[in-house]
Amino acid sequence: MMKAIITVVGQDQVGIVAKVANQLAELKINIVDMSQTLMDHNFTMMLSGEWDDQQLSFADAQGALGRLENETGLTIRIQRQAVFDAIQKL
Amino acid sequence: MESQSILETIQMVAEENLDIRTITMGISLFDCIDSDGATARQKIYDKITTSAKDLVKVADQIQAEYGIPIINKRIAVTPIALVAAASGDDNYVAYALTMEKAARELGVDLIGGFSALVQKGYQSGDRKLIASIPQALAETSRVCSSVNVGSTRAGINLDAVGEMGRIIKQIAADDPVNCMSLVVFANAVDDNPFMAGAFHGVGEADRVINVGISGPGVVKRALEQVRGASIDVVSEQIKKTAFKVTRMGQFVGTIAAQRLHVPFGIVDLSLAPTPNEGDSVAEILEEIGLESVGAPGTTAALALLNDAVKKGGVMACEHVGGLSGAFIPVSEDAEMIRAVSAGRLNIEKLEAMTAVCSVGLDMIAVPGDTSAASISGMIADEAAIGMINNKTTAVRVIPATGKAVGDEVVFGGLFGRAPVMRVNTSQPAAFIERGGHIPAPIHSFKN
Q1: End-to-end Cα separation, chain B, in angstroms
Q2: What residue ranges define each of the domains in chain A, with the CATH number in brackets?
Q3: Pick from B55, B174, B200: which is nearest to B117 by CA?
Q4: pLDDT reported for residue B148
Q5: Domains and their CATH numbers in chain B
Q6: What is the DSSP secondary structure assignment for residue B420, as one 8-state letter?
């Protein structure tokens, strides 16, 4: 099971959550947790997702979100979760 | 999900230039030694290109999956003076060309280990290697060279100090930029992942992965939050930040080692600046409260920074090694360059700073008419600081042939540009020409 953190930052606009969630649903990425906020007038959303890495490679997930990034003008990052645990937890 | 922690981590990378400066694979070449030079070089090429064949691929994968920039992929090999000595070759330039060819084949940025260890004396390979350095650096672009001329245990080889002054002048006469690929060390370390000084030490395992971190910008930003607080708070803040930065190094190194099936060696806890704005060690010192780096108080602020980075970093990783300290390469630090250009930072102050941090007079351009003896004098001074204080010190100076104070040498990329600095022109020639060996210091009665 692949676990990743997806962060979406950009100008607030109608349908951001829907666009990202739709894309994740298409990729069969399960959203385990999510939060969103406005920071410096920027919409900032964080999603914790997991999926079966036998079905979808990390690179393919990254590629699909990269295309969504280009379409929407949002900044979308996807990073494997382990890095956050390593840096922030003892 | 802890949003704040996630955002902080992303901000460290996206806005504060946190990155892994280098993943360096150390490779022993002892099993490549051969009495026939051509055979030895073929074995060297084969060993490097098979051992590190996935290094670049794995580093790129880690960068993509975890969102951590990995700036350089490098290789460090056993000092070539030891490997080549058994061959009958009179000149070791061909070994440098082999290293270059392997580095290009693999796509690694730099390859270090065109090196000699002469702190106590020369073996036959050492003389040949040192004599080959100017041509080796002229004919390659990725090969890095280092020579260890002193140590706390052995003292300082003054013959080598004199010779390295002449070698540096010789390199500069051809092209000053090539001088950035040569470091003259005292107390050189065996597991340093940073260039130009990386080589794979004699006591190291067959292959190993070492990681060098960066991150001055992260420390600077963290200190902005404690302006006006006591220096104890500054120290604590640096420790906490260094911990996080180092965890990233530990994490990346562990994964890289797993994927490459090579043991993980050490994390080098260094703050390595780049010429990018906001990625400067000098700016940290100024954030601590100096009007400019170079002001009285600089050495004290740097000592605190260096020590706090180590204290924070040591707990964050399994094994610490390499140079581990704040780097002060002039050309690679935008604020250092400004301070030098404005006359607020001089070589003498830099020398004092090297007594409390890693690693030495680094990436400093000096006037083209600086004599070989003056350069040897600088090397001797740095080696003495290292020898007496049980620390690594080094000299990487660039005689700017045809240029004078006020001009600059441009290296490009990570290596930046160096304003030519004034050097005291009174000559140490008679001292250097004495040659011989400065005895090892006494290890008691410390003062």
Answers
A1: 53
A2: 2-88 (3.30.70.260)
A3: B200
A4: 98
A5: 24-54+65-186 (3.20.70.20)
A6: B
DSSP string, chain A: -EEEEEEEEEE--TTHHHHHHHHHHHTTPEEEEEEEEEETTEEEEEEEEEE-TTTS-HHHHHHHHHHHHHHH--EEEEEETHHHHHHH--
Judge whether B136 and B187 are in contact, CB under 8 Å: no
CB contact under 8 A, A87 and B9: yes
- Show the tokens assigned to B435: 């040659």
CA–CA dist B128, B118 (Å, integer): 12
Asked if B10 lies within 8 A of A83 by C-beta distance, the reply is no
Taking only the tens place, the pLDDT of each residue in B191-224 is 999 999 999 999 999 999 999 998 899 999 999 9
Residues 6 or more apart in contact with residue B257 via CB below 8 angstroms: B209, B263, B264
Distance CA B66, CA B43 (A): 35
Q: Return the amino acid letter for B249.
A: G
Cα B41–Cα B43–Cα B44 angle in degrees, nearest 5? 60
* Interface ipTM: 0.86
Contact flag B251-A58 (C-beta cutoff 8 Å)? no
Residues from chain A that touch B211, judged by Cβ atoms under 8 A, are none
